[in-house]
């Protein structure tokens, strides 16, 4: 597997058991643990990765390192992973791999216009949309698979591999959403508004 200088290999230096768990899942597990430091969780919820500054650098780095992500200083991935840490803190680590994210967003009542805005957003807009979505998910007590959303956030225009993953994630989200909306309509329930 080849990686660019900004793409950390979370497998390097990890024990064999840790190599099997992806960083997103490790972050979610850390933030959903019953013994999680409530002060850490509150700080990560308040933190907004779109705002430059020194706030919560320690907390974000601590979570990223615990997840096996040792990003180089100045990495373009640093604020993107910070955004994901922030969102997962808002939902208290509610990440359910293999759930259909699009279907869950339809069940949540997310409108087609909001979904379109989410899947078509560039990185700066995602920095606003993903935390808003996380707050809505947390309020509803709804878990999703954050991996497709992470793929959108981690897309780098200079890395074709991440762009391909983001495009695949967009299609999966939209497809799941449209299927769920069609199923609701077929069952006679009102569609999302």
N-to-C terminal Cα separation, in Å?
43 Å
Radius of gyration: 17 Å
In terms of DSSP E residues, the strand content is under 5%
Sequence stretches where pLDDT stays below 50 over 5 or more residues = 1-19
Count of helix runs: 10
Elements, N to C (H/E): HHHHHHHHHH
| Secondary structure category | mainly alpha
Question: Which sheet architecture does the biggest sheet show?
Answer: none
Principal-axes shape call: globular
Task: Please tally the β strands and state the result.
Answer: 0
Average pLDDT works out at 85
Tell me roughly what share of residues is in helical segments: 55-70%
Q: Can you tell me about this structure?
A:
60% of the residues lie in helices and 0% in strands. It is an all-alpha fold and 193 residues long. It is globular, with a radius of gyration of 17 Å. Mean pLDDT is 85; it is low at 1-19.
Topology record:
Blueprint: H1 16-19, H2 23-32, H3 38-46, H4 57-66, H5 77-90, H6 101-108, H7 112-120, H8 123-140, H9 147-153, H10 160-186
Helix pairs in contact: 2-5, 3-5, 4-5, 5-8, 6-10, 9-10
């Amino acid at each position: 597997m080849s990686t660019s200088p900004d793409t950390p290999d979370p497998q390097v230096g990890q024990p064999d058991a840790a190599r099997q768990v992806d960083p997103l899942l490790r972050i979610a597990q850390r933030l959903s643990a019953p013994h999680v430091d409530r002060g850490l969780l509150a700080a990560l919820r308040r933190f907004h990765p779109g705002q430059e500054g020194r706030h919560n650098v320690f907390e974000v780095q601590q979570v990223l390192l615990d997840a096996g992500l040792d990003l180089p200083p100045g990495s373009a991935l640093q604020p993107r992973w910070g955004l994901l840490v922030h969102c997962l803190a808002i939902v208290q680590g509610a990440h359910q791999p293999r759930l259909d994210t699009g279907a869950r967003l339809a069940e949540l009542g997310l409108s087609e216009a909001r979904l379109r805005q989410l899947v078509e957003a560039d990185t700066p807009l995602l920095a606003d949309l993903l935390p808003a979505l996380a707050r809505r998910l947390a309020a509803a007590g709804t878990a999703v698979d954050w991996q497709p959303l992470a793929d959108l956030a981690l897309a780098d225009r200079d890395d074709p591999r991440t762009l391909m993953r983001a495009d695949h994630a967009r299609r999966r989200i939209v497809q799941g959403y449209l299927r769920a909306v069609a199923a609701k309509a077929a069952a006679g329930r009102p569609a999302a508004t």
